[in-house]
Amino acid sequence: MGFLADESTDRKVWPVTRYIIEQLILPKVLDNRELKLIGTGDYAASVYGTAYTGMKDVIDGTNLTLVPLPSMTGQNILFTTPRENFIRLINRNNDASNITVESIDRQIKVFADWHESVGFGIEEAVFASVPV
User: Fold this and answer.
1) Residues 90/30, Cβ–Cβ less than 8 Å
2) Residue 14: count of CB within 10 angstroms of its CB
3) How far does the chain reach from its first CA to its final CA, in angstroms?
4) Closest C-alpha among 82, 90, 45, 77 to residue 63
């Protein structure tokens, strides 16, 4: 492992630093995108024999399917809208961009830009069931 930390070079260019950024930090950003940015639901384990299975279920009598959002797990809210009405704006590269690595006081600091927004084109086309 010593070759990953060459003391003669700056820590921000060490292979282990690149590994941490690419294999640990950036994948976590993708998880956090759904679970912390879009929705803030609290996880609750499913109870056998109740509500939604987590699979794409067809709504009886239609050609529409229910698609679960991980960020809504454990919430008593159900909403639906045509796929075309659900708008998600995101960076062109679909990931964090403008990644900068700084080496300060024997620490590595990683900075990145993230641009994303979600919403609906026509509010009247969103149907929801929200408990009182």
Assistant:
1) no
2) 19
3) 57
4) 82
